[in-house]
Every structure is written in structure tokens, then in C-alpha cells.
Design goal:
Blueprint: H1 19-40, H2 44-53, H3 57-78, H4 82-99, H5 109-128, H6 156-162, H7 168-179, H8 184-191, H9 195-217
Helix pairs in contact: 2-3, 3-4, 3-5, 4-5, 7-9, 8-9
């Protein structure tokens, strides 16, 4: 088999290596480079996650600092104020650190953390409510949204702030469907309600937001800052 020609033209005779040794040397260099590159390419996120699995506090701190801001924003959408959101955030991170060993690096880690925060937010709302936060709407017919959907009329900033004015049930379903992207079937399972109830809550939430938008445009209400 033809491998190639290595020239010794410019090398002193006493420094020449047998061709087999040169090939072995090149192979070892390539192997070392491949292993070094693989280690170097290990993402910072993966290093942090593995450090947290090992219970290293410095990595737990890094994870918290990396995601606390984003996850607080998620919690704020399900709660009425920052104090509540921060309580939910702390509870959520306790669950993250307790269950982080179950993350298998399949899919987004941020998405995994986000789902925990959503579930924790829902649990918080349920604990606060002595009665159900959802209307009994089994006999209510859900009407599809018109093409002029209210969510398309608002900027993201205004929409997220107006969500705080929604009743808990409306706000929860709206967040899960419109922002988180859950289906009505998934919402029904997570909230222990029917798909029809989920659809109705979403419809009512959008109507409520539409009324708030009209009042806002007429300057009858002022959107509060967080």
C-alpha cells in the first residue's frame, strides 16, 4: 500500500528517523490533539451541570447566576408581584438542584429549568387558592379567536405587563399556551382541568386583555412597572 514519500533531503543523516517512527509520532500527536479538542469543546453549561451533580457549591452558584434573571422573569408572569416571584424562584432552584442528576443532556437545559419554574409557579398559585382558580366551563362553547388577535396588537413589553392584571386562572393558561407553547391537552393534564376549560380560560383571558388594551389606549389605565 502506498503511504507517501517523506523527504530527508535537508536533514542530517544522524537525525533521520525511520519512516515507521515518524508515522507513529504523527499518529500520537493527532490522537492527543483530538482528545484535547474534545475536552476543550466541552460546553461551559455542561461543566456547570456536571459540577452541580457532584454537589460542588461553586458550580451551583454559577448556575444560579446564569439563570436566575431569566427564570425570575418567568416567575413574574405567573405571580402578582416581585416578592412572590422571588419566593417561587427560590423554591424552583431547590428543585433544580435536587433533580439535576436526572438531566440527560438531551434537549435544552434552559428549557428543563424553565419547565421546573413553570410547575413551581403553578403549585404556588394552587397553594394560595382555597378554591379552584378556574371557572367551571364544561358547558361553555369555545369560539375560535378572530384573525385580529389581541396579542398581535400589543408590543411584547406592554403585553407582559398587562398579563399581571389578569385573574390567576386566565393568567396561568394564557402564559402556558401563548408564551410557553403548551397545547390545551398538556395544559389540561398539568392543571388537572379539561381541554375545554383550558380553551375557555384562554378565550376569556384574550377578551380581558382586549378590554385592558382599549382602556390603555384611551388612557383610563396606566401600566405599572415591575
Amino acid at each position: 500500500m502506498f503511504i507517501g514519500v517523506i523527504s530527508y533531503k535537508d536533514e542530517p543523516k544522524n537525525q533521520r528517523l525511520p519512516q515507521s517512527n515518524i508515522l507513529l509520532k504523527c499518529f500520537l500527536k493527532a490522537t492527543f490533539y483530538t482528545k484535547f479538542t474534545s475536552l476543550h469543546q466541552l460546553s461551559i453549561e455542561e461543566q456547570i451541570v456536571r459540577g452541580c451533580v457532584d454537589g460542588k457549591r461553586e458550580f451551583q452558584k454559577k448556575l444560579y447566576e446564569a439563570y436566575a434573571g431569566k427564570m425570575l422573569f418567568v416567575c413574574l408572569r405567573y405571580t402578582k408581584n416581585r416578592e412572590e416571584a422571588e419566593d417561587v424562584l427560590q423554591d424552583g432552584f431547590i428543585k433544580v438542584f435536587k433533580n439535576i442528576h436526572t438531566f440527560r443532556f438531551q434537549g435544552s437545559f434552559e428549557g428543563w429549568v424553565r419547565r421546573i419554574m413553570v410547575h413551581t409557579s403553578i403549585e404556588h398559585i394552587r397553594r394560595k387558592k382555597q378554591t379552584t382558580m378556574f371557572d367551571d366551563v364544561e358547558d361553555i362553547v369555545h369560539h375560535p379567536e378572530s384573525e385580529t388577535d389581541v396579542t398581535g396588537k400589543m408590543g411584547e413589553k406592554e403585553l407582559l405587563k398587562m398579563i399581571h392584571y389578569l385573574p390567576d386562572g386566565y393568567r396561568t393558561v394564557f402564559n402556558m399556551y401563548v408564551i410557553e407553547g403548551y397545547s390545551h391537552k398538556e395544559i389540561g393534564t398539568m392543571l388537572q382541568i379539561s381541554e375545554g376549560t383550558s380553551k375557555s380560560q384562554l378565550s376569556k383571558a384574550k377578551n380581558h386583555l382586549k378590554n385592558l388594551l382599549h382602556k390603555y389606549l384611551d388612557s383610563d389605565i396606566e401600566i405599572a412597572n415591575d
